[in-house]
Structure formats: C-alpha cells, structure tokens
Batch of 2 targets.
Target 1
Amino acid sequence: MSFKIFLATKNPAKLREIKEILKKFDCTVLLPDVADFPPETGQTFQENALIKASFVGRMYPQHYVAGEDSGLVVPALNGMPGVLSARFAGPDANDGKNIEKLLQYSKNLKDGEREAYFICVIALIEPSGNHRFFEGRLYGRIVQEPSGSNGFGYDPIFEIPEYGKTVAQLSVEEKNKISHRAKAFLQLAEYLEMAV
C-alpha cells in the first residue's frame, strides 16, 4: 500500500538516510514548508519528537506526520550527551565540536565504562489526531580516536564491537541494516503499511 508522510526535520543528512531506509516501501517522504521549528525544550527524546511532530501536524492535519529525535547516550556519563546530543558543545555546536567535547568527558573512562547507545524515537501524528511512538537503539562503545568519513554526528567515535568498526567506517548499506534510525523507521513503515 502506498503512503505519504511529512517528516519534521531540516537536516538533509537525516532526510537522505531516512529515504534510503524506506526505499523498499511504496512511500513518499515530504519535508514541510517551514522556516524553523520550535525549540526542543523536552526532557526526553519522546517529548522532543512530539514537539516537532505536533508543530508540523498542525500545518498538515490530513496527513501522517513524523517527528524524530535521536542522540547518543553514555550511561557512565549520566546519560550525556542525551537529548542535548546535537547541541552538546553549545549554541554554535557542530559535529566536530560535539565530538571534541565528548572525547574530553570520556577520556578517563575505563574500558567497561565506554558502553553507549544511539537512540531514535519517532512520534507519529495520525490524521485522527492520535499519536504513537516508535523506538530503535544501536548498542556499541565510545572510542577515543575518530575513524571513518561516512555518516554524521557521533558516528566516527561510536564503535560496533561485532564489526570492529565505527559507524562512520560502515557503508551506507551496512549502517542502514543496523542503525537506531533504521530500526525505528522500519517499525513506522510497517505500521503505516497496515494503517493506510
């Protein structure tokens, strides 16, 4: 069954990745015509995903709208960077600055304390006004030296032990089989195939 979904993001790398993940489904992923999103003031990934989805949902009430929030969680660092993953280094944060700050925080972690996970939470607003959540996680560990040039965000310092590589060293195909975002968006697509 064919379906259409508006995606509440302005991140072109995320959009490319999501379109690649969903390519086996008969779906159209659209970006909303919006200059800016409201600030992500939630304390959880669920709250932030719902803030984005609700904002776009009010603009397109007859459509399915997905808001997504994702980040990196290092339990030994009290869950940092967590919901602040994209803004970890402050107002002028970028991938490089965020990685640099996390490497500073994690430099004294012992081997067993380097476990971490990426999480992706999707809030789906349905035409009925109801909402539901989908979640995916990818477990791995933080390394001290960035490696690889694929991906974005913290990918260069997040190692998947069973691959012996960082996420940034994986091919797009490999990443989209195992990523937190792939897991969450595949659940969403399977739900929409049944729902529409």
Note: The helical segments are 12-21, 45-59, 95-106, 172-178, 180-195.
Target 2
Amino acid sequence: MSISSSAIGSMILVAIAFGQTAIADDMTMPKADAKATALSSADKKLIESAMQAAPRKVSRAATIVVMNDDGTMRTLREGANGFTCMPAPNAMCLDKAAMQWLSAYLGHKPPPAGAVGFMYMLAGEIQASNTDPYAEEPAPNNHWIKTGPHVMIVGADPSFYDMYPKSADPDTSVPYVMWAGTPYQHLMIPVK
C-alpha cells in the first residue's frame, strides 16, 4: 500500500502539533502500580530517560524497553498506546511500524514494505554518519553529522523522500533525508 505525500505531510504536522501541545499539558506521571514500585533505582532511571524522548502524553502511556547486551529487549514497563520508548544514549519513542523498521535495520534486513512509521527523538543530540547506516565513528568519507531534537518518518515509499534534500552534508536545522538511497533512508525533521 502506498501512502500519498500529502497524507504523510499531514501526519507530520499532526504529530508535531500534538508534541508541542503535549509538552505544555500535565507533566505528572501516572500513579505507580505495585510492579513499578518493585523496580530497581537503575530501572527507574532508565524509564525516566526513555520518557524524555517524546512528549509526556506519549511517553507516560508507552511501553518502556531496554536493549540487553545480546540485542534482545527487556520490558521495564508495559504500555497501552502503541508506542515503545528506549532510554539514552539515543532515547527514542517509536510507533509499531517504526519498531518493525528498527528491527529490520538492527538485523540488517529489508524494512517491511508499506509500513510508514513515526519516531520521536526529543532528548538531546545524535551524532551519526549521514551516508552509512552502520558507521560507528567519524571517518573522512562517511559524512558525520550532528542533529538536535527531532522526529523521523521511516518506511515511506522512496518517492516520498525525493521531495527533501538528500545531500551527504545536509543543513540539519531543516528536514533532510538521512541514509539516502539505502533501504533505511528516512526523513529527519528537527523540532527546535
């Protein structure tokens, strides 16, 4: 199934507007249940770190997971809104389609076709190669960039990304395509 560029544009505007209003809304956490009070202080810190990735209206109802050293996920808190958040160093909150995209990326597999996903990464700055999805450090030819708080659209039809800059060395203060031309290309949308 292909989603039109205008539909994706509308999704972006709604998500950004939702995020901006959610930040101003009630910032209190829901009351902890008995299971939550049994968490270690380290797990509580991981949960709070993960919740920084998205507006509180999203993160406080999201499932919170942490990646184990072997690449498996450990659930710290079950959620109810379809989003999954992970803690720093690259704190993020992803919808179901974005989780499928991330799983494909981590497994070096093709992302699922027709599954457009949305991610929040509002907690700080990321540094990565803009051209090599698997680069781990800066190198002369991998176009290392820094991007502040942003949201991402992943899994869209390749023609969607043609509407945005695909420079290897983009202006990271405006929307741009990261990892252009790879199966993992995605739209980066700065929010500050």
Note: The first strand starts at residue 63 and ends at 67.
